[in-house]
Amino acid sequence: MNTAMIIEALIKIAILIAGLATGAAYLVLLERRMAAWIQDRIGPNRVGIPLTRIRVWGLGQPPADGLKIFFKQDFTPAGVDRVVFTLAPIIILIAAFVAFAVVPFGSVVPLNASDGTRPVQLVVAAHVNVGIVFVLAASGIAIYGVLLGGWSSNNKYSFLGGLRASAQLLAYELPMGLAVLGVVTAAGSLDLETIIQQQGANVWYALAQPLGFLIFVVAALAEAARLPFDLPECEQELVGGYHTEYSGMRLLMFLLTEFLHLITASLLIVVLFLGGWHLPWLTGYTDQVGWFGALLRIVVLVVKVLLVVLFFMLVRWTWPRFRYDQLMALAWKVLLPLGMVNFTAIAILDQIQVVWKLESTAWTMLFALIAWAVCIIALLAVGLLAPRITDNRPLRPAADADMVG
Amino acid sequence: MKTDDPQIRWLDTPTLNVAERLYLPLVVEGLTTTFRHAVKAISGHPVTVSYPDEEPQIDNPLIYRGVHRLNKDAQGRVKCVACFMCATACPAHCIDIIGQESPWPDREKYPASFCIDELRCIFCGMCEEACPVDAIELTSLYNLTGRSREEMIFDKEKLLSVYEATKDKEPMRSSRMGEE
């Protein structure tokens, strides 16, 4: 490790944090516009360049919002645990940023590659052997921030929000981990870059492991506390949940984190299942890449992430929130068994492929087909056999069941 | 709750078919709906009207309840006969009429002064319904603004000028009095 490498890492970190903060701010705008469009409205489109009448589709809204919240009073209510109350948003924000350290935002830039020096990896910590574990661990710390924030607020709503968050995130880490296990088994590596290259060499894991993809998308929604699973922070029941008592900059940190989690979840879905920066016949999948190829890979990744984010926003305005018992039942009675089935099937298929060296395209296609069959059968089995979790009303007394109409 | 209460009407939960129990087909259905709405709004057909930039479309101006007007008959006289029916019907007490003996042979009284406090008015349209000679009507003028409270008390001349301004776009609902 020499000075140049440290400077390189620092530059990457600066770009990453600035880009992510700006990106999260503009995702707020995108979310508001999406919400408006889906409800047949227009949305915030009037804030443009200050002191002019230029509106540029409301792109001035995020800076205006940021400035407003920056000048707001940062109020600490009486009765809170001051140390933890101050610490919680910091922990959660840092954990959210740290998760991005190993996520590749493209592959490599061939900087100085001609005169023999190595190309620059477009990731802060390149080739971390435990990449995906690192991401999961960092996003696991986020629960800590939510729980601390909710508990230290000394407020019933915040407390309930924190409790819900801890139970929910814990429950959904399991199926998420099982879905990731399938990918890791198939790729043979925990390194995100290697996982992408394996998908480029073979087939995207969304096609090869449909069941795992499905489980991961649902679990990622729950981990990011997006709308069908936003019980920790539901405005209607819990007045904002764990961040009810926060205001000003500290509230901003929580809100920023929420959107960072959205970006993390989308990135993970893209990297693990949708091929990362790989696009068939266009980008290639090796480290040998020119400037154009490198830029193309970045664009492909960003577009994919944006599409997943848009999908998440569409989902938000499509479903109502789950009831808490339904949420738990979905995690423990549906997703967890499905995850086990998925992992078992993928492990067996992978072992067959490795032992008999069935590497050709036809065999890959066949294995994908088998995975699809497993997916459909497992879904049917769960759908038809799982206990009904739709209703908690009192049951009609059996005696007079047929005399009342 | 007592489950044997005869007052209770028991409803059976609907039975779900295979597609509904699988949940995923319904997911796709729901996403299609929201996506359709998003496309509709993005392609330029939102429900929202950007008001100061674009004028709202009033479906039927004849039944819209905006600013009042005092109608004139065929000879250009005010149709009002100062019967006080509108002032009596008004729930907000915003109509103030001073009646006087009419200079014309076909009616006994006419309003020497006819004032409506537009700030007190609740635009319920009861005056319009009460009027026996269809003299007072509500127009489709929706953007009623002023700089002072006094300015918002519309007198007879102002109300007649509203009629002049809107008579072409919104003909009188009935012209009984004018044609006799």
Describe what you observe in this structure.
The complex is a heterodimer of chains A (405) and B (180). Chain A has 405 residues and is mostly helical. Chain A is 64% helix and 1% strand. In chain A, α1 packs across α10 (248-273) and α8 runs antiparallel to α10 (248-273). The longest helix of chain A is centred in the first third of the chain and has 36 residues, at 3-38. Chain B has 2 domains: 16-48; 61-179, 2-Layer Sandwich (Alpha-Beta Plaits), CATH 3.30.70.3270. Chain B is built from 6 helices and 5 strands, in the order ααβαββαββαα. Chain B has helices at residues 18-22, 24-42, 85-89, 126-130, 156-166, 176-179, and strands spanning 68-70, 95-101, 109-117, 136-138, 153-154. In chain B, β2 (95-101) and β3 (109-117) form a beta hairpin. The termini of chain B are far apart.
Q: How would you concisely characterize the structure shown here?
A:
The complex is a heterodimer of chains A (405) and B (180). Chain A has 405 residues and is mostly helical.
Topology:
The complex is a heterodimer of chains A (405) and B (180).
Chain A: H1 3-38, H2 61-70, H3 82-98, E1 108-109, E2 120-121, H4 131-152, H5 156-187, H6 192-201, H7 205-208, H8 210-223, H9 235-238, H10 248-273, H11 291-316, H12 324-355, H13 361-385
Antiparallel strand pairs in A: 1-2
Helix pairs in contact in A: 1-2, 1-10, 3-4, 3-10, 4-5, 5-8, 5-12, 8-10, 8-12, 10-11, 12-13
Chain B: H1 18-22, H2 24-42, E1 68-70, H3 85-89, E2 95-101, E3 109-117, H4 126-130, E4 136-138, E5 153-154, H5 156-166, H6 176-179
Antiparallel strand pairs in B: 1-4, 2-3, 3-5
Question: What distinguishing features does this structure have?
Answer:
A: 405 residues; mainly alpha; 2 domains; two-stranded antiparallel ribbon; 13 helices; globular; B: 180 residues; three-stranded antiparallel beta sheet; disordered C terminus
